[in-house]
Amino acid sequence: MIELIGKTTRIVPRSGGPLAQDDMDRARQTPGNERIIMSDLELVRAAIAARENSYSPYSNFAVGAALLCADGTVYGGCNIENAAYSPGNCAERTAFFRAIFDGRRDFTAIAIVGGPAGEPISELCAPCGVCRQVMREFCDPATFRILLGTSADEFVESTLEELLPYGFGPENLGR
Ligand code: THU
Predict the structure, then answer these.
(1) Which of 92, 119, 137, 157 is catalytic?
(2) What stretches in the chain show pLDDT beneath 70?
């Protein structure tokens, strides 16, 4: 079943399992949804795979992110905690910093999943304010899409501008 709720797209399998073939077929017949079904869901699944690498012994809250570049390259990231707490890094920034080090600047979307370690995803995990600001440095707020997975087959979508309105960015400093 595909629900369009304002600007938010939810793809919800009826059974709780993978999307049924008729769901996929209906989605493809809905103008504009081909991309959502085929690559956005794959991006959410890449974030779920990235979450497997989470190092989160202090919070036991495991987060994964998958950052999509314009050419289709995906950079995974996980949260990395530390005994001294403050050096810890979020999954989103791990993905961004890996990509930036590779010279990438052409980001189109990020999928994020998180929840208690060792458990399947059941609730959405929204990016923290610091991560939103890092996205603001490298992404167009009006077009960069943030997919928050609520399961392997369900996500909600926002733009960066929706999650960080009136943001401060490089152009404020003439860059
Ligand atoms: N965390 C992320 O990696 N991304 C988020 O969007 C929210 C929070 C991490 C930080 C910390 O390791 C753990 O989740 C609990 O806050």
Answers:
(1) 92
(2) 1-38
